[in-house]
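A student in our group prepared the protein record below, which I am reviewing. What it holds is a sequence and that sequence's fold in C-alpha cell form. My question to you is simply how this chain folds and whether the C-alpha cells agree. Do not assume that whoever made the record got everything right. I have pasted the whole thing underneath without changing anything:
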Amino acid sequence: MEPKSKTWVRLLLSTLQQEGCTKSAAVVLAVVADRATDSSARSCRSTQSELAAAAGVDVRTVRRAIQQLEALGLLVVERQNGERSTYRLTEAVELPAKQRTTEQARAAAKARAAAAARETEVEAKLQAYLAAGNRFKEDER
C-alpha cells in the first residue's frame, strides 16, 4: 500500500494535467476530496472559508478554483441559500484507493488486471516474433 501522501500527489498531478487547471484549483480539489464524508466518499459540505483555510489560500482563490473545477467537469456544486454548499466530485476524479467505494475499487482492480493481461499477451507475441528470427528495422542498422 502506498503512503497517503503519494496518493494525494497523484491526485494533484492528474488534476493539473487537465487543460486550464491551475495549481490552486488542484489543491482545492484535493481538499474537497480529503473532506468527503458521505457514504460514497464523493462529496463534502464545507464553507468556502473552511476550504480556503485547509488549502492555505484566500477565499477569492477558492471561488475562482471552484468555478474552474466546475467548468472542467471535475466538481458539481449544490448551492443552498444561507447554508453550506455541497461540493460533489464527479466520476472524472480518480480518488486515492482508500476513499474508493468497494464497487469502484473492484472496477479499478479489474481494469488493472485486464491491462496486465494485455501487456503479458503483447510481450508473448513480441518474444515469439523475435524467436522466429525477425528483427526490427532499428536492430538492422
Notes: The CA atoms of residues 107 and 117 lie 15 Å apart. DSSP finds six helices and three strands in the chain. The chain has a mean pLDDT of 78. The domain at 4-98 is CATH 1.10.10.10 (Arc Repressor Mutant, subunit A).
